[in-house]
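Worked problem 6 (solution included).
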Amino acid sequence: MVQVTLEPLKIPERLLMPTVFERAWTEPANRLKPRILLPAAFTGPAPVLPGEHRVFIVFNRKGGAGKTTTTLELACAWAAMGYTVRIIDADPQDAGLTGWLEPVFPEGMAAKNRMTLKNVLYGEVGLDEATYYTRYKNLYIVPSYEDCAVVEYDPAVNGERTLRRAIKRSEAPVDITIVDCPPKIGKLSTFTLALGGEVLVPSQLSGLDQKSNEPLRRTIADAQEEYDVRVRAAVLTAWGQTKISQKVGNEMAEHYPDALVCPVRRSVDATTAPDENKSIREYNKRSTTTRDFDQLGRMLVAPRGKQHEQRTAVRPGEHPRQGAGGQAPASPGSKEKIPAYVTPDVMNRLRNTVVAMQRIDDEDAEVPVSLSAYVEAAVLAQIRRDEREYNAGNPFPQRRQKNLKTGPPVTK
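Solution. The predicted structure is:
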């Protein structure tokens, strides 16, 4: 078996979503900008230390919310960082994660000897005996099929902490376990929440998903009273510039004030990759969906071997130089003034804007370094765009009048 090695993505800074200490999108729906909303207490991710084990539970009681895609893409992102990741497929259906990420069974193993999550829940085998290789290096799966749904109705399976005990007894050197939950409330979803850990709540941006958000919030709140779980992130799948995206995003930020809210932009790759039994990351590493999931993965877990350097965001009410005080220092014996200057963060944003407008794909390409050059380059880039759009790519003719006035583009 030749496994695919998932490589870390080199995403230019300008293509990353901004991270802001905000809890709502307030701009008009047709001007929505993708950005990650951070909770007030966010301090940045930490790496998984040697001997440490973290559990993520991808939970939503509604089907079609993006749980399976979120599970696989985050698992691939962490595997690319060098972590050993185990996926537990707790959604028993043939068209689920096991059907997408097919387990690689030992050669010659008879079908009756292939253990699944069902065998683990019945206590027939341990979790390690039901863990198999996948096509990706560092990524393993505990599969489940439609017959696993029998545990929902069988009184012989009644220990809600059965799966938790199975993980504790596992001797496999796994750094991260991520669980794909079923889209309903029952034994399987209870078993997964009883694991404890960090809950990720995906929600597709639709009217039906919006109607299910309040019951979902109550379900998670009830689980938090019984088990040691906390909502770490709300994932807005198939995000776009729509009113429902704004409404659902703001509602999720309100429901989970301690969680980051991360949009994942829609792309055709998300629908075509499963047809080829590939992750979106492998199918198209340049896809916006791939980049967004990779950024989310790094917001949740820092790359191995170093603390993740998170880009800073100015909190509302803070002065960029003073910080938490909210005001700039006043000069002794003079009126209070706020100095006019350009912070390094603003300079970087200007640089990224110019690079994006010039369609420069090379992150290391030379770009203007002075602010005046930024403005000049931005104006020239906009002129070239307008010439392509309004004048068939030909330069606009120069006006002969000495006193030039603004007006619509001049065409031949």
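Discussion: Strands lie at 19-20, 36-37, 54-58, 85-89, 132-133, 139-142, 176-180, 197-204, 229-239, 260-265.
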